[in-house]
Amino acid sequence: MFTYFIAGVPKCQDFGHAKHVAEKLRQTLPTFSYKVIVKTEEEYRDWMKKFCNEQKWRIDKNPLVWKTILNSDGSCQLIGGINEFFEHLIEYYNVDTRLDKRIKKQIALDNVERLQFMLTEQVPVFRAPATRVCITGAVYPSTCYLVSELLQLKELQAKGGGGVTVCLHHEDSNKYGDLIRIKHEICDAEFNIRGCSSITVVNGEEEGLLNCDLFIVLGSMRREENEEEHLWMDRNYIAMKRLASILNRYCPERCKVLLMGMDLLCFNLSVLAEKADKVYLYNIIGVTGHHGMVTLPTISRATGIRIPDLHCPPVWGFDGSAKYVDFKHVIYHYGGSATDNPGCEDAATAVEDYSADRNKHKYLQSVLLQSESLVGGDGEHVAVSTNIESNTNEVCHLCSLPEIRVAVRMISEWFKNDGRITLSAAVFSDGTFGLPFGMFLSQPVLMENGEWKPNFDFPPPDETVIIDMLSKVSEIAFEYNLGHRFNMNPKEMPSEISE
């Protein structure tokens, strides 16, 4: 590949014309490269004479144009003046070099005004590479909303001005047109200051994982009508095993993996972690907090407490087989509105360091006892569960807005890494709360050294909930032979787990 050099005096109209044509070519041809050498009128003659003598050229023109070959010994190949330069461009690039005389005059005047700037050596500004996000399965209507939030997320922005880039992918090649449509919608959005350079469509996960910082997996593989349960789970198992194989080969060590929009979320996470043994265990997580978030209007109506004063209820369970929204351990503010407390940001998605000042927070259990709509006839808390059978008739949009809102909050805290909040997510169970070890379950989690870990300070749900989870998880783990990675490779586990 060549780099063209254009040397001359800014007040010369031919110099401005040549530079203008070269800039247009660079904008339209990604491989076209040029540089300018600017001299004052007094300097140019002596400089050109000396330079041409060194190159053994006999020429006296303004501008002077030559080219060099990249990765060569630096030898220069003379092209000539503006006429020879334009003939060269017409032959190689079939470009129209004509320009109105009035425009040429104006360009020359502009160059004279910018002379001091052009004479100053411009040191390239180093910009860190952009934070790279890959979303696979990105064909749902809510993908645009998710991408728009990620592009604007302050915590994702690469230091040094690198920004954020997002890759869109789907394993079904027939969905390529849908991905292109989504890309164009995002490129045209007002918030997207980088335009189409921030969004790319890739043909394979391995391409999307190249230098990837965050890998988001969207998808459901929903249970088809009249499909037997074990066949449905087998399909999910095969899909996660395939994805694990790709992650083992191409996933960067630093890359975080987030699963969302799945009917068998915890099962898929458990399979993925079992098979993707080259991926760090605590770099894999699933979104579950939205199950609690969508119950806030019901709790607010039943208790008379405003939604801004309620924190997102904890979500427990093996999401996809059973999940439980723990109403009685919703935290609310009784010493003033959450809006009066600057530390309580977006209470609907997470709990803001409730242990710091317990005088301003209270569990909802006392209010629940007064609300018949949220308690059973004997006054006990009613856990809301969703089993596999009920999911078959459930009509919902994958990756709904509450789920995206929770996911963005999780990503924000994950990359910020300050450990101030508690939220619900599906993470590796280390036995905290008496949950089964070695599987992924939804539970209250807290950031610890850049990793989401179970928050043992949070009160557990009713014992019956734990017992129910134990039985369901043990059956599935035995049937699909899950959990062996963590018994066979204790060295890769943190010391507090391996002990």
From TrEMBL:
Transmembrane segments: none annotated. InterPro entries: Lactate_DH/Glyco_Ohase_4_C, Malate_DH_type2. GO terms for biological process: malate metabolic process. The keyword Lipoprotein does not apply. Keywords: Oxidoreductase. One of its GO terms (molecular function) is malate dehydrogenase activity. The keyword Oxidoreductase applies. This is Malate dehydrogenase 1B. It comes from Acyrthosiphon pisum (Pea aphid). The lineage of its organism: Eukaryota, Metazoa, Ecdysozoa, Arthropoda, Hexapoda.
